[in-house]
pyruvate decarboxylase
Amino acid sequence: MDFKVSAIDTCKPLNNEISNLPAQNAVTIQTPTVPFNSPYSTLGRHLARRLLQIGVTDVFSVPGDFNLTLLDHLVSEPELNLVGCCNELNAGYAADGYARARGVGACVVTFTVGGLSVLNAIAGAYSENLPLICIVGGPNSNDYGTNRILHHTIGLQDFSQELRCFQTVTCYQAVVNNLEDAHELIDTAISTALKESKPVYISIGCNLPGIPHPTFSREPVPFAFSPRLSNMMGLEAAVEAATEFLNKAVKPVLVGGPKMRVAKASDAFVELSDACGYAVAVMPSAKGLFPEHHSHFIGTYWGAVSTAFCAEIVESADAYLFAGPIFNDYSSVGYSLLLKKEKAIIVQPDRVTIGNGPAFGCVLMRDFLAALAKRLKHNPTAYENYHRIYIPEGHPLKCEPKEALRVNVLFQHIQNMLSGDSAVIAETGDSWFNCQKLKLPQGCGYEFQMQYGSIGWSVGATLGYAQAAPEKRVIACIGDGSFQVTAQDISTMLRCGQRTIIFLINNGGYTIEVEIHDGPYNVIKNWNYTGLVDAIHNGEGKCWTTKVYCEEELVEAIETANGAKKDCLCFIEVIVHKDDTSKELLEWGSRVSAANSRPPNPQ
């Protein structure tokens, strides 16, 4: 394993990132010992301490008979908070949201019935490059290799089904069924999650967490990873080629992509933007990774559904640098972007490709961007063009007294709620498009799940994000169809004393799917959503709900949520017309529908 011993204080995460420490900072230290056979020299204790060391102070869990002993040991760790969730899917989504705010997350479930339930959330975290520790309470170690049939399995003597499922959505799998190598397996799994920025799977035999073992007799030495380094010759060659490519362009632009997060390159991208003076846009899934108050920020580049005047500037440029892009059918609006490969520099976390070639491997994005910032000529031409053609966005038509509330009016008021102390969670659906148009103040968080796009993700993610960042007031925008998938963990938000504001947008169905392909299956049973949340509240915890039909009621609700009920979970059900959607969804839906319905290629 690739880490060095280092002092505890130097290993604490800084700015929600796990530090990469240079070798010269490494020192040998004496770690405290605990007597063998002490209740602290156990696998469960070791795992709890490891989670705390990497910055996880909250673990999302659902109990089951295979993980109960392990949960006892996690509960007994004073600094670790066990958050019980209503189901495994939401526990996984919560760990996802927690990782977005804290840098890493963790969940604990039981064998197979719990593991396969959380699997969808782990796949989503994998797609979004989030380090997540998925811990499963496994069978008794004596049952391996016995050909016994166990409960919670599919009834076969081979009960490796869960492991095989996780192999495709995690970067490392550890099955701990003896104490001799448990220390190594657990440490390797956790360190791999941090280094690869992907989920890992750890299965721990249900009879092992409480047994002392000599390998756990010391306080675990904190992780300190050897830093990843660029190939300096490759870096210099890539910077030289990119400098020549961009400096001869007349109106080059920069576009930030979602992989800037995993590459930890957001600061370097800002440094490059400051130095070169280019117009700067972000892809939709990179919203929040670049400061929107930056003087040369021009908005979200999303092809035909970009923010106003952004696509015109990007697609008319004679050179563009994309930092960490993902070009899928959703981000490319059904593969309809008007980009040319020969004009593009594509910078991935460890690789740079310039036009149709050449390509440079073993070049880290943050190193490349920082070096390039020192070499580019200042060229504000594209931004000046944007400034010339830009026309400020209009405001929604003023509502008549008691007129039915419109979605664009709702988001006008949400815009006014944002500050550096807030964070926005956007659910899959029309909230994607409406939230993209929000202008984020400095320090305002923003998260949504674009690559995987699992409806219902935002309820669990809101729970996890709010738990990881209690200093922020989370504002979640959730459609009624998505809410019906994962509504139960409103209960957990109340148990945790969270003060999130949830806007439940009730338009009677799966609106995003209506715009891709309509049918009767997109109409859902209407719930009394405020009544449901009141029932879940049941007089325990701080909760306030209301239902709004018009702008006057919305204004009053927001004033209450920010005033008298500012310390409560506030649930605001917004009733809107079923056909009230953003114009961007209408355009995007038709293009994605066209991409989905392409006929088979001739054989």
In short: Residues 232-247 form the longest helix (16 residues).
